[in-house]
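Recall that a protein's primary structure is simply its ordered list of amino acids. Everything else, from secondary elements to tertiary packing, is in principle encoded there. The following example makes that idea concrete.
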Amino acid sequence: MSVDSKEFLTPKKETQIIDFENFVPEVSFDLERIVLEGYYADELSAYRAKKTWSKTLETSFLLDLDFDFKVVVERTDQPFYSVRCDFSTACGRYAFWRLTHNQAPEIQYIIRTAHIPSTELEKTVVTQEPKNVVNTISLLERIKNYVISKWSSE
């Protein structure tokens, strides 16, 4: 039996080209299964979302991880990562109901933006008015110049 070399070089199925630059992370609330699901383009964002979801549900609704809810990160058959949160107790289901019936909009916002990294500088820039941002930038420039002048004089 002879083996044709072209058989090994041709792909068996078509490859999908995914445009990651235009990929938008998506969070959905499945009312039938009582599941919160999120899809992210990279593993780091998925694990960041898992950590934020867990911490937020524990602190905001006083739920216990692995008892009231479970958060799992999985690689999907697509080149995306899935974060799934299953609510298992009555307290967990009530928290899910509050999320889906606009009873906790601030928690919804935190869950939907959980994949975005948070740093002190970002918090400063986002929460301050534009004039305060300019003041902060000028203060940082003055500190930088002071440090450079001290360093160069030694």
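Helices lie at 5-9, 43-61, 90-100, 105-112, 120-127, 130-153. The chain has two domains: 20-116, 122-153.
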